[in-house]
Structure formats: structure tokens, C-alpha cells
From TrEMBL:
It comes from Immersiella caudata. Residues 21-163 form the N-acetyltransferase domain. It comes from the Eukaryota. This is Acyl-CoA N-acyltransferase. One of its GO terms (molecular function) is acyltransferase activity, transferring groups other than amino-acyl groups. Signal peptide: none annotated.
């Protein structure tokens, strides 16, 4: 699996982590770890077929491994985008037993630093969908609600059946 980082991109120093944790910068976790992280952290589960396609739409990614868990991925995040001006933070997840240790904050800070360092000149558009447990984390890192100027919208589950 190739790294999710362009050859000519500028490297960004990751934030410090608690002892026993290691950043894997520019890399997604394996497909089984990715699926487990999503499901176990409360994100919508995805199929293996969906997870296999994730690298294709990823502009940059990172994850954190735990020495206590034999180097398995325990936190992750990624950036979708065109590399120009539009960047979407996705798949922010930390396994429940590793929450409240600053791992989610560290992942988000690395993603934002990478965008800041590698996005072209001009103000980038950085967005995300914030579920209730993650809202405080995002607000601490400068995110604000976009409504009423803009409103995020999705197609509900089962929309394919209605077409």
C-alpha cells in the first residue's frame, strides 16, 4: 500500500504523543484496522469493498499505533481534497480504550499542519462533519459552525432505492 503523501510535499513534524504511541504520518492503517477503528469508535461501519477504495480519495492521512497493542492502529484521520483549495477532514477516530489521551487532538493538529504547509498560496477551504462527541475537539482547534450561511447536507441511508 503506497503512502498517502505526494512525492514533492513538505514534511510536517507531528505533535508529541504520550509514551507508547507512535505516529504513522502519510499512511492509512490497513483495511482491517481502518474498518475496526471506524466501527469501534462509533463511526458508520464500512464494507471491505468500500475500505479498499479509501486511498484513492485521500490527499493525506495519518494514524497512531500503540506499543501496548503490538503496533496496531488505535487512532486515525485523513484529508480528502483536490490539493488546491478544498480540503475535507474525514475518518477522525480513536478506539474507546485510547480516548482522553490527546490522540484525536494530535491527529487533527497534524492534518491541519499538513494542509497549512502543503496547500497552495491563498486561503484554503477546510471543512468537516462533526458528530456530537467530536464537536469540542474541533471547536478547540478553531472550527466554527457554518450555518446559517452554509448548511451541510447528505443523502439519507437508502437513497439508492428511491432512484
Amino acid at each position: 500500500r503506497p503512502a498517502i503523501q505526494a512525492e514533492d510535499s513538505k514534511m510536517v513534524s507531528p505533535p508529541s504523543l504520550p509514551a507508547g504511541y507512535t505516529f504513522q504520518s502519510g499512511k492509512l492503517p490497513s483495511v482491517p484496522e481502518y474498518r475496526h477503528l471506524r466501527a469501534a469508535s462509533g463511526l458508520t461501519p464500512v464494507t471491505e469493498a468500500q475500505a479498499v477504495e479509501v486511498p484513492k480519495g485521500t490527499w493525506f492521512a495519518c494514524h497512531i499505533t500503540s506499543d501496548a497493542d503490538n503496533g496496531k492502529a488505535v487512532a486515525m484521520g485523513r484529508v480528502l481534497g483536490d490539493g488546491g483549495w478544498y480540503f475535507f477532514i474525514a475518518d477522525m477516530a480513536v478506539l474507546p480504550e485510547h480516548q482522553r489521551k490527546g490522540l484525536g487532538d494530535a491527529v487533527l493538529k497534524l492534518l491541519l499542519a499538513y494542509i497549512k504547509e502543503n496547500a497552495p498560496e491563498g486561503e484554503p477551504c477546510v471543512a468537516l462533519f462533526a458528530d456530537p462527541p467530536g464537536r469540542k475537539l474541533y471547536q478547540r482547534n478553531g472550527f466554527v459552525e457554518s450555518a446559517p450561511k452554509e448548511l451541510g447536507m447528505i443523502l439519507p441511508t437508502g437513497w439508492r432505492d428511491g432512484l
